[in-house]
Design brief:
The structure holds 2 protein chains of 2 kinds. Chain A is 33% helix and 21% strand. Chain A contains 5 helices and 5 strands. About 25% of the residues of chain A have low confidence. Chain B is α+β, with helices and mostly antiparallel strands. Chain B is 22% helix and 21% strand. In chain B, the strands form 6 sheets. A 10-stranded mixed beta sheet of chain B has the order 8-7-6-5-9-2-10-11-3-12, with helices on both faces. Chain B has a 6-stranded antiparallel beta sheet with strand order 20-30-21-26-27-28, with no helix packed on it. Chain B has a 5-stranded antiparallel beta sheet with strand order 25-24-23-22-29, with no helix packed on it. In chain B, helix 4 packs parallel to helix 7. The longest helix of chain B has 34 residues. Chain B is globular and about 80 Å long. The model of chain B has no long low-confidence stretch (mean pLDDT 95). The chains are: A alpha+beta, B alpha+beta. Chains A and B meet through helix 1 of A and helix 9 and strand 25 of B.
């Protein structure tokens, strides 16, 4: 059992600019980041993906079965209307070295036009530094899991997705 | 010719005074037959200017931060009035201004969009209340109106009229502007006289784009030149009613940039600065006190640092927009001056019709319609949505329909409390007025402080023109104007008070003024909140208007309503409450809250028409006139002729990317795009190419449930064959746009799908034979009734921002 749990933060945005600002803030916050990826979709449906080298590296080393999901805050419409969050596809997709197309494929289904998402993976010990650097997310959740490397990452991501779904509902 | 009888309009033609024999032999003509009525000798021209959604503390002429050199020029050559009052809402002030009667009494207890079933709220001018332009026109004036109208019921703004409710029907010879409560300044859906002319051609000119405020002045000057080219003497009445400073706050970046950094100190400090200048100018008495901030507005120091620039830019754009309005009024003034007629022209310029508007909610909005559609967004969300459309430097561009945050409006109403919609307090009811006419004014640059009201303007103009109020018009006995002329104040600073009593009522917020005392009875609802919880205390059988808060002020000693004297003068409170009810009954104010009646189950009959057919090339269907597809399942089908080689372009489109839908063909694919106020955008694309020949295409929306903003499934069909599908999680519950129209065969103005923005209006290259909307009723009558109720509640909410 790993002593330091793994955290996965998911942030949802209404603009690509905001997501990229948080992405840069995470990378420059001074703490070690296992990986980070920001995905945005413009109003015409064109996707852009930016990710850290080590995210790719982790994937290359066998970081299999890391799901990709982006929860995007959906504002409640009128007081009488409850609308659930727009949440991402289920976990279980593979992110690996050639994962750009995978991300695009999944993000194409999960990110609304004009929206963006950020995923950051890090050791829980760095949470106090990394989490506060994500300031612009409309919706932000953090999942946590213990275990071996890949197992922990998968668990944390699943936990984050669950929270995003539940809190957005 | 003898002086005609002006008490009955139209003025009767004098009997034939010549001789008409069997032949010309011995016959003598009477050339007066081909003449026309002329005003009394010396009747001046009149330029009446009304700025929209602005406050007492906005223009520099009254100490505000917005540079208004032309307003100041007219004030320096004329008079400032610092106790002039309006009605706290758009249409009501306009109705009162143009009729000289209290707004409820002429059917405008609310705005033009909300034509209710009570006499004071019908939005339909009674025929026994002939308006000022009609009176002036029939007495020989040339009359024209430019800009915002907002006095035509929502469902009567198409080619079927009725046109007695359009500007020409009110007596204006010429009209150029828009009928709605607001308009985009870059992409208006224009009206010229009795025709919807739609998007101006200049909208498509990227080098020199059309801008409505400029065009208003251009058209006004052109009209003046035309009148003078024909008749050197005929006086004119020109009503110049700007769309500024109502949202959307559209202005070129250069105008906004004049104020870059000017509001970084925030709204609290801005109020203090404005108040100090107001005292220096003397427009606020030296002993006046600045009223405190209500908790509904956040303190500037509590705004997160990273969002202060976002808020500051909102006000920079508003300020630039407003200064541009001053500039364009100045152009009209210059044109009159060039004609050598400025001194022969009575200029009455009112800066604001209801105080500044707080309808942007606390956050401000990239899209004014988010509030009206009940979409609560945080300031961070608003900022991100602004970024989506180009960032804060584009806040005033056509890509957004912005409205600033409520606290800026409150600051614009310095030194008073509240603002638009709040008829109980001076923030919504006291606006600057400037009058220039050297013929009567001998102490140019002076101040007038008599208590006046917008109903007093028309009687004043008539007195200055020497024209009596008519007793009958078209054979109908007329209700005398309720206003009183303030003409005497032009010549004499110490002229007696001409108005000693006046009621105010806007959406339940009431004021009763008498002999210096003002009773303020504000509902506790925050003006921009229309949620069920906020409205619950005002339900029939629940609300007792007399049991609510009542504040008492003595304005001669308390210019700003800073000291509530209600506890010290309970008898005066009761006296004014009683007087309010008397006035309310007399002027058709009752029932209170008729504007909100739909929220309490009082609904108009359900419209049973569910099929709407548009043949040929119908364009510019105004936004309140489109088939009401909201909250329903519906289908849009189109019969097309697609030539060999294919076709592309828009089949039907409503509004633009900030809320609307489009069904179009691009790259051979039938596509449906739906913008939920620019917050969410949904798109479905057919999986096969559009065939050639005579075909029918269709999109169907199957709503999940009978609820506002319902999600649902979209299916695209070609000749009844499903070719594409997708889901829309949220739909627009109330209204796509305040001003943008629907078009068949093209997408005029701002486009719905930015994918074809570079090809706008992206006209269909085949033939659209017809487009049919089929709005499917919900399964149960109760569902249909519920949705009907929701729709009209939303309609009322939209109306509140008029």
């Amino acid at each position: 059992m790993a002593k330091d749990p793994t955290d996965v933060l998911i942030g949802g945005y209404l603009s690509s600019k905001a997501a990229h600002e948080d992405y840069e803030a995470v990378l420059n916050c001074g703490a070690d980041v296992m990986g980070a990826v920001v995905v945005s979709k413009d109003l015409e449906g064109n996707l852009s993906v930016e990710q850290t080298d080590h995210m790719v590296k982790e994937g290359a080393e066998g970081l299999a079965a890391v799901g990709f999901a982006v929860g995007l805050f959906a504002p409640p419409l009128l007081a009488a209307t409850a609308i659930g969050a727009v949440v991402g596809a289920g976990a279980g997709k593979v992110l690996h070295k050639k994962s750009g197309s995978k991300i695009e494929e999944q993000a194409g289904e999960t990110i609304p036009l004009g929206g963006a998402g950020l995923i950051v993976a890090y050791k829980h010990a760095n949470a106090d530094t990394i989490e506060p650097s994500v300031t612009r997310a409309i919706k932000k959740v953090v999942g946590e899991a213990e275990g071996r490397h890949v197992e922990a990452l998968k668990g944390a991501l699943a936990d984050a997705q669950r929270k995003m779904t539940e809190e957005g509902a | 010719m003898s002086e005609p009888d002006r008490s009955s309009l139209p003025i009767r033609r004098e009997p034939f005074a010549g001789v008409a024999n069997k032949t010309l032999d011995g016959s003598t003509p009477d050339w007066n037959l081909i003449g026309h009525p002329t005003p009394p000798d010396g009747a001046p021209n009149v330029l009446l200017v009304l700025i929209d959604d602005a406050g007492f503390g906005n223009p520099s002429t009254f100490g505000g931060p917005i540079q208004t050199p032309n307003y100041t020029r007219i004030a320096a050559e004329g008079l400032r009035y610092n106790r002039f009052h309006v009605t706290a809402l758009c249409s009501p002030t306009r109705a009162a201004l143009l009729t000289g009667r209290n707004n409820h009494a002429v059917g405008f207890g609310s705005v033009g969009e909300f034509a209710g079933g009570f006499p004071g709220y019908s939005a339909s001018l009674p025929r026994d209340c002939a308006p000022l332009p009609r009176i002036l026109r029939d007495n020989g004036y040339s009359t024209s109106a430019f800009g915002k109208w907002h006095l035509t019921p929502d469902g009567q703004q198409g080619p079927a009229g009725p046109f007695d409710r359009w500007p020409n029907g009110w007596g204006f010879d010429y009209f150029y502007g828009f009928l709605a409560g607001d308009s985009g300044q870059w992409d208006p859906c224009l009206i010229e006289n009795q025709k919807v002319i739609g998007t101006p051609e200049g909208f498509y000119d990227e080098e020199d784009p059309y801008y409505f405020p400029d065009a208003m002045a251009d058209r006004a000057i052109e009209w003046l030149h035309g009148v003078r080219a024909q008749d050197a003497d005929k006086p004119f009445f020109l009503y110049f009613s700007t769309g500024c400073s109502h949202a959307p706050h559209h202005v070129a970046q250069a105008w906004a940039d004049r104020y870059r950094g000017a509001f970084d100190q925030g709204w609290d400090r801005l109020r203090e600065e404005t108040f100090a200048r107001q005292k220096e100018l003397g427009v606020v008495p030296a002993e006046a006190e600045l009223t405190p901030r209500d908790d509904a507005f956040p303190a500037w120091e509590d705004v997160p640092e990273q969002l202060k620039a976002f808020y500051a830019r909102q006000m920079e754009v508003y300020a630039g927009f407003s200064e541009n309005a001053d500039h364009n009024v100045g152009r009209v003034l210059d044109a009159i001056d060039e004609l050598g007629e400025l001194d022969d022209t009575v200029v009455i310029w009112i800066w604001g019709d209801n105080g500044a508007s707080m309808e942007g909610t606390v956050t401000g909005s990239f899209n004014e319609m988010t509030m009206q559609n009940g979409i609560p967004l945080t300031d961070e969300m608003q900022l991100q949505l602004a970024e989506r459309f180009g960032g804060m430097d584009k806040w005033g561009a056509q890509i957004m329909d912005p409205h600033y945050g409520a606290a800026w409006a409150w600051a614009g109403n310095t030194p008073f409390k509240w603002g638009k919609q709040v008829g109980s307090h001076l923030g919504g009811t006291r606006n600057p007025m400037v009058v220039r006419w050297p013929e009567r004014i001998t102490d140019a640059g002076a101040l007038r402080s008599q208590f006046g009201h917008v109903i007093d303007v028309a009687p004043t103009i008539l007195e200055l023109a020497g024209i009596p109020q008519p007793e009958t018009v078209d054979g109908i006995e007329q209700e005398p104007m309720h206003g009183t002329s303030f003409a005497a104040t032009l010549a004499a600073a110490d002229a007696p008070e001409f108005r000693t009593q006046q009621y105010f009522e806007t959406i339940g917020n009431r004021g009763m003024y008498k002999d210096g005392w003002w009773l303020a009875m504000k509902t506790e609802r925050i003006p921009w909140v229309v949620t069920p919880d906020a409205l619950k205390p005002y339900a029939p059988g629940v609300w007792d208007p007399d049991a609510g808060p009542a504040e008492l002020y003595y304005l001669p000693d308390d210019f700003t309503q800073a000291h509530d004297l209600a506890a010290e003068h309970p008898d005066k409170v009761q006296e004014l409450k009683d007087l309010f009810w008397t006035e309310a009954e007399r002027y058709k104010v009752l029932p209170l809250l008729a504007t909100l009646s739909t929220f309490f189950g009082i609904l108009p009959p359900i419209d049973r028409q569910t099929t709407f057919e548009f043949r040929g090339d119908v364009q510019n269907v105004l936004s309140g006139m489109i088939p009401r597809i909201y909250n329903h399942s519906y289908a849009i089908s189109a019969d097309l002729v697609v030539p060999e080689g294919g076709a592309e372009g828009v089949i039907v489109a409503e509004s633009d990317h900030l809320g609307g839908f489009t069904l179009y063909v691009k790259d051979g694919k039938l596509t449906h795009t739906y913008s939920m106020m620019g917050v969410f955008v949904f798109k479905q694309v057919a999986e096969e190419d559009l065939p050639t020949g005579e075909i029918t295409v269709r999109m169907e929306f199957a709503a999940d449930e009978a609820k506002p903003a319902t999600g649902g499934e979209v299916t695209l069909f070609i000749d009844d064959r499903p070719v594409g599908k997708g889901r829309m999680d949220h739909t627009v519950p109330i209204r796509f746009s305040a001003y943008a129209g629907m078009d068949i065969g093209r997408d005029n103005g701002g486009v719905v799908d930015l994918a074809y923005e570079d090809r706008k209006p992206f006209a269909f290259t085949g033939t659209v034979k017809k487009v049919v909307f089929d709005i499917k009723p919900h399964l149960s009558d109760q569902d249909e009734l519920d949705i009907h109720a929701e729709a009209h509640r939303g309609h009322a909410a939209h109306a509140l921002s008029g």
